[in-house]
Automatic annotation (TrEMBL):
Keyword annotations: Protein transport, Translocation, Transport
Source organism: Butyricimonas virosa
Keyword Protein transport: yes
Pfam family for this entry, one: SecB
InterPro entries from the UniProt entry: SecB, SecB-like_sf
BP GO annotations: protein tetramerization; protein transport
UniProt similarity note: Belongs to the SecB family.
Domain of life: Bacteria
GO molecular function annotation: unfolded protein binding
SUPFAM superfamilies to which the protein is assigned, alphabetical: SecB-like
Protein name: Preprotein translocase subunit SecB
Length: 134
């Protein structure tokens, strides 16, 4: 058996959905001309060994400049530093690692809400938060 100790690093202690907004027009048009504009905003707050990461994704789908779908989802992840971490910059951890951990949950929420709306799945591509934070 391997020795799997979580004595150092970070753990997520809570993940909260704090905002979920969805709207669509009655007659959503599909096709190659449908364009998704995605904006991702991340805020980090550090309090001792706690790192609070608020991540917001805004998605607007337009077809020939007509807004078809508007989605805004915000989640907060609360992380705790465990033991002696090699990462000293907790703000950077939140912007990169914390955001990357939260993002799949937001992607899943957007996919599910678009499926339930009858417009088919909108699946956001993965994001490299290492590059996005620079």
């Amino acid at each position: 058996m391997g020795n799997n100790k979580l004595e150092s690093g970070f753990k997520i202690t809570n993940l909260l959905l704090v905002e979920s907004h969805f709207s669509r027009i009655n007659n959503v048009q599909f096709g190659e001309d449908a364009k998704n504009d995605v904006e991702i905003n991340t805020e980090v707050s550090v309090n001792g060994s706690s790192i609070i990461v608020a991540e917001e994704v805004i998605l607007v789908q337009k077809y020939h400049e007509v807004e078809q779908v508007n989605i805004k989802v915000k989640m907060i992840g609360i992380f705790e530093s465990i033991g002696e971490s090699i990462i000293r910059d907790f703000n950077e951890f939140g912007k990169v690692n914390g955001a990357a951990i939260i993002f799949p949950f937001i992607r899943e929420h957007i996919t599910n809400i678009t499926l339930k709306s009858g417009i088919g799945a909108i699946i956001l591509p993965p994001v490299n938060f290492t590059n996005a934070s620079k």
